[in-house]
C-alpha cells in the first residue's frame, strides 16, 4: 500500500471557521439548521442534532456559514481537537473549524480517524495563549499521511469504526450497571422523598463513629507514584476513585495529613466543595489521605453498612439537601456542620446487608467490564497506530 504525504490545506477543498449570528436578532435562531458548538462534538463520529439551531435567514443574511455534508468539524478554540463529521448541511460557532476534504484524495471518515489519532499535531500548531487557538493557516500546515487509494482509506476507517463501536458498547454496559445499582437502591429501600416503606430516619452524624474534614492546606505532592494517594474532589467520579489524575505523597507528608485520623478501608470520602455531593469508598489497596475540599465519614458498623451509607450519601435525596445548603457563590460549598445533619435512612441492618451483597456482586462484574474496556482501548490504540503506518493492508 502506497502512503502519500501532504498538508491538510492541499487535501481540502474548504477550510472554514463558523461564526455566531447576532444573538439580539431572534429571527436567526430556530430549528431549521444544526448549529454546532464544542459541546456537540466528541459525541460520536457523525454529528446528530445540535443543542441549538439557526434559521435559513441567518444563512441568507450571511450571519452564519454553511458546512457541506461530510465536513470534518474540529474544536479550534479552547478544547483543541474535539471532532465530528456533518451528516447534512449545517453550521457552527466561531470556536469550530470545518475541513471539507477533496473526495478524490482523502475520505472524510479517514480524515476524522487520522485527526483523532493525531490530536497532538493539532495542539502543537495551536498558539500559546490563555485560551489555545488553532487558526486556519496553522491547521492547513498540519502534515497528513494517507493511503493513495480511497478504498484503502475506507477499509481503515471501517476497521477503526468497528473497534470504536465495541468500546461504546462496553461503556454502555458499565453505565447500565451504575443505573442498575441506583434502581436497586430504590427497590430495596424506596424513594426517601416518599418513604413508601415507612423506614426510620436519622442524621448522618448519628450513623458515623467519626466525621473529619480535610486538612486546610495544599498537600506537597511527590514527584513519583507512591503508596500514599491523596484523594481530591477530582478523583471522586461516579461513586468510584478515578486514578487518572491521582496525586501521591511521600511518607512524611502522608503522616502530616493523617494526624487527626488515618483513613481505613470502608471509610467514605465525600466532596463538599466545587463538585460537591460525590463520594467513594476507600479500598484496601493503598494508604490514603484527604486532599482539599473533601471530608471523611467512618460508618458506625453497629448501626450501618459502609456500602449502604455510601449509596445513601450519593442519592438524589441527599444531594438535594446539599444543594439547599450550598453557601458558595461561584464555587459550590457545603459546610461541615450542615453535612453532619443530613437526613439519612436508618433501615434495619439486615436490609442494608441485603443491598450490600447485590452491590458487591455487581461491582465484580463492573471490574470485569472495565478490564475488558481497557483491553479494547489498548487494541484500538494499537490498530490506529498500525493503520496510519500502512501496516494493516498488504498486497
UniProtKB/TrEMBL annotation:
<comment type="similarity">
    <text>Belongs to the type-I restriction system S methylase family.</text>
</comment>
<feature type="domain" description="Type I restriction modification DNA specificity">
    <location>
        <begin position="14"/>
        <end position="174"/>
    </location>
</feature>
<dbReference type="InterPro" id="IPR052021">
    <property type="entry name" value="Type-I_RS_S_subunit"/>
</dbReference>
<keyword id="KW-0680">Restriction system</keyword>
<keyword id="KW-0378">Hydrolase</keyword>
<dbReference type="GO" id="GO:0004519">
    <property type="term" value="F:endonuclease activity"/>
</dbReference>
<keyword id="KW-0255">Endonuclease</keyword>
<feature type="domain" description="Type I restriction modification DNA specificity">
    <location>
        <begin position="222"/>
        <end position="374"/>
    </location>
</feature>
<feature type="coiled-coil region">
    <location>
        <begin position="359"/>
        <end position="386"/>
    </location>
</feature>
<dbReference type="Pfam" id="PF01420">
    <property type="entry name" value="Methylase_S"/>
</dbReference>
<dbReference type="InterPro" id="IPR000055">
    <property type="entry name" value="Restrct_endonuc_typeI_TRD"/>
</dbReference>
<dbReference type="InterPro" id="IPR044946">
    <property type="entry name" value="Restrct_endonuc_typeI_TRD_sf"/>
</dbReference>
<keyword id="KW-0540">Nuclease</keyword>
<keyword id="KW-0238">DNA-binding</keyword>
<keyword id="KW-0175">Coiled coil</keyword>
<protein>
    <submittedName>
        <fullName>Restriction endonuclease subunit S</fullName>
    </submittedName>
</protein>
